[in-house]
Protein: Cobalamin synthesis protein cobW C-terminal domain
Amino acid sequence: MKFILANWMDGVGDARQELVFIGMNMDESALRARLASALLTDEEMAEGPGEWRHYPDPLAPWFAA
Structure:
């Protein structure tokens, strides 16, 4: 419980996230760069979900119509 509370943020709750990649011959620096490029800037974060909805979605649709 102490661990969860140490990462608690009002408004979002448990704000800790973790990704684990397991594999051989992975390019760690390239992987880190790709992940970092997906992060919002401080300005984008301040815009909030109302604006995020208008951002282009590079992923294919998740649900079939």
Q: What stands out?
A: The chain has a mean pLDDT of 88. The chain has four helices and two strands.
